[in-house]
Write a structure and sequence with these properties.
Blueprint (H helix, E strand, L loop, with lengths): L2 E4 L3 H12 L8 E4 L3 H11 L2 E3 L2 H5 L4 E4 L6 H8 L7 E4 L6 H8 L4 E5 L9 E7 L5 H12 L2 E5 L4 H11 L1 H18 L4 H22 L3 H8 L5 H11 L2 H21 L1
Parallel strand pairs: 1-2, 1-4, 2-3, 4-5, 5-6, 7-8
Antiparallel strand pairs: 6-7
Helix pairs in contact: 7-12, 8-9
Length: about 270
């Protein structure tokens, strides 16, 4: 599969790594376009991919074009690509930019809107996505293969869920990293060496997620399994509830959701 990636930032690089790891494309079949010469040189040296500063040049010969750019760059890039597309699959990973907005600016309907997250850098991403109704079966299958290379993927039939997914899984790693950082700092505060605190926290977070995934139980049930009456966990949970952790997380997700909707409205 010949693939053009417009935008060589963090997510663009994650996509390169995933495509190569899953053997969906080799280094000679991937062209990356980026405005920064230093970044182009870095990606070429690191992965052996083809690089260019010109988005239209990157498009030539590509079966799939991935728009790994910021929302504010989208209008300019779509203007460059409009009228130059035939059967290529277009995958946009720009937060908040609607499917209809992309299709309208391109006057083209073989388009997918996707929202991966940063764990895609290590093949453990979660990607929500939706495709235009006119998407061919071949391009639908290509999109699924590309996005699955990043980790897990989920297809939505209704685009209204995309901004919701952005607020949960797209922004979600930042929430989890903040929790991890806070727990490590708490461990240091009570006297643990920082490296030991970090190991304890990371393994507890990943182990808890894996346990929930494999055991198939509601998180409240798993939480109750850890919580003994009058014990240390009960005391800690009481403090968290008194501090409003639950409502604060809900408010944070709601704020991210509203921001994503606002980006799409521009």
């Amino acid at each position: 599969m010949k693939i053009a990636i417009i935008g060589g930032g963090t997510m663009g690089e994650a996509i390169i790594k995933s495509l190569l790891r899953k053997k969906l494309a080799d280094k000679n079949s991937i062209t990356v376009s980026d405005v920064a010469a230093a970044r182009r040189d870095q990606l070429k040296k690191r992965y052996g991919v083809q690089v260019t500063s010109d988005n239209v040049t990157a498009l030539k010969g590509a079966e799939t074009v991935i728009l790994a750019i910021k929302p504010q760059e989208m209008a300019h890039v779509l203007g460059q690509l409009a009228g130059k597309l035939k059967t290529q699959l277009i995958i946009s990973i720009a937060a908040g930019v609607t499917l209809e907005s992309i299709c309208s600016k391109l006057n083209y309907r073989q388009v997918v809107r996707a929202m991966p997250n940063t764990p895609a850098q290590v093949g453990r991403g979660m990607t929500a996505w939706i495709g235009a109704k006119e998407l061919t079966k071949a391009n639908l299958d290509k999109a699924k293969a590309v996005l699955a290379s990043l980790g897990e993927e989920h297809y939505f039939a209704d685009e209204k869920y995309m901004d919701m997914a952005t607020a949960i899984s797209g922004s979600g790693p930042a929430y989890i990293f903040l929790v991890i950082e806070s727990l490590i700092d708490a461990g240091v505060h009570i006297g643990l060496p920082r490296d030991v605190a970090q190991k304890l926290v990371i393994e507890t977070i990943t182990g808890s997620a894996e346990a929930m995934k494999k055991m198939g139980k509601h998180p409240a049930e798993l939480k109750n399994m850890v919580t003994s009456p009058g014990g240390t966990t009960a005391e800690a949970l009481y403090k968290l509830e008194m501090g409003g952790l639950r409502s604060l997380l809900i408010s944070a997700v709601e704020a991210a959701y509203n921001k994503a909707k606002g980006l799409g409205a521009k």
